[in-house]
Amino acid sequence: MMNRSELGASLKRSHNCCQAVLLAFEDKLPYDKESLLMLGSTFGSGMGGMMGTCGALIGAEMVLGILSKQTRGMNPVSRKLFQAFEEKCGASRCIDLKGVVTGHMLCSCEDCVKNAIEAVDELL
Question: What transmembrane ranges does the database entry give (predicted)?
Answer without folding.
Answer: 47-67
